[in-house]
Each structure stands twice: as C-alpha cells, then as structure tokens.
C-alpha cells in the first residue's frame, strides 16, 4: 500500500518533468550518467529527479567546473552533507591534510570522502590518506565524473557523505 501511495504522489511530478523541454546542452557541458532505475507500478519507484530541494545533487560537469542543483560552479568544490563550498586545490598535488582540515570540525563525521581527481583516477599522497583515516572516514578515489555520480547515489540513500572534487579537465 505504501508503494501505491508513493507512486500516486510521484506521478504528477513525473508528468510535469516529462512535459518540460530539455535544455539545449552545449558540447562542453555533459550531463552525468544515471545509475537510478524506474520500476513498474507494483515495485518501488525510484526517480532520479525526485530529490528534495535542499539536497545537493551534481547534475553535470565541464572541464572547469560543475553544475550543482542548477547552478554552475567554476573550479574545485567541497561538499559535506548539503553544504557546498569553493575549494582551493587546483591540481591533485595541492590536496593536503590542511586543505581537508574542515573534517576535523564537522560533526557527525561523514562515512566516506569521495575524492574526484579530475579526468583520470590518480592517488593522493599517503599523508592525505592517513589524515582521512584519522578522522574516521573512508577514502574513495575516483575520476571526477564518477565521483559526482557516486556522491549523488550515496547522498540520495541518506548516507553521510562528503566529496572533494577537482574539475574534470584537470589531469596530473
């Protein structure tokens, strides 16, 4: 019965979304791939656009930044829960324990820190790994496109997650 209620509450939103014209995306702006699925009316419906307005969601990326909740951000970003801030590192070698020092203050501590290293998966230095472990978080190092998608999924699941993202155009 709860599934039927969720379906009837979600269908009007889905119809409004389908009717809207999709924006003309330039070649430099690429939407993130969706890993979410929609099931039949008898199963749970899980729609990618059915996200609360106050929840951060990466919607796209460029070589120089990201689109989060419909707003374009240039440069590196740091996301903690539903807080997004500009982040200083421009390349992987600039990521240090000092650049991640905000995690000494944040409570509750996120379960995982997703590190988007730009176009390619590169490893941070061992000092950064030790710092992240000392805060109680796990570190997941991915390219920025996959890091954004992973952040979206974990955040939508209600997990306490953080992301430190370099723009996709960065390569070390």
Helix-strand blueprint:
Elements: H1 2-19, E1 30-31, E2 58-61, E3 65-68, E4 71-74, E5 77-80, E6 83-86, E7 112-116, H2 126-134, E8 138-142, H3 144-156, E9 161-165
Parallel strand pairs: 7-8, 7-9
Antiparallel strand pairs: 1-2, 2-3, 3-4, 5-6, 5-9
Short structural summary:
By secondary structure, this protein is an alpha+beta fold.
Structure description:
The chain is globular and about 50 Å long. The chain has 3 helices and 9 strands, in the order αβββββββαβαβ. β3 and β4 form a beta hairpin. The chain has about 170 residues and is α+β, with helices and mostly antiparallel strands. The protein starts with a helix and ends in a 7-residue tail after the last strand. It has a domain of about 100 residues: Hypothetical Protein Mth938, Chain: A. The strands form 2 sheets. The chain has a 5-stranded mixed sheet, with helices on both faces.
Low confidence ranges = 21-27, 36-48
Which percent range describes the beta-strand content? 15-25%
Helix-strand string: HEEEEEEEHEHE
Radius of gyration: 17 Å
The geometry reads as: globular
CATH topology of the domain at 72-171: Hypothetical Protein Mth938, Chain: A
CATH superfamily of the domain at 72-171: MTH938-like
Which architecture name of the domain at 72-171 does CATH use? Answer: 3-Layer(aba) Sandwich
Structural class: alpha+beta
Highest CATH level, the class of the domain at 72-171: Alpha Beta
Mean pLDDT: 80
- How many beta-strand elements? 9
Query: Which sequence of strands runs across the widest sheet?
Result: 6-5-9-7-8
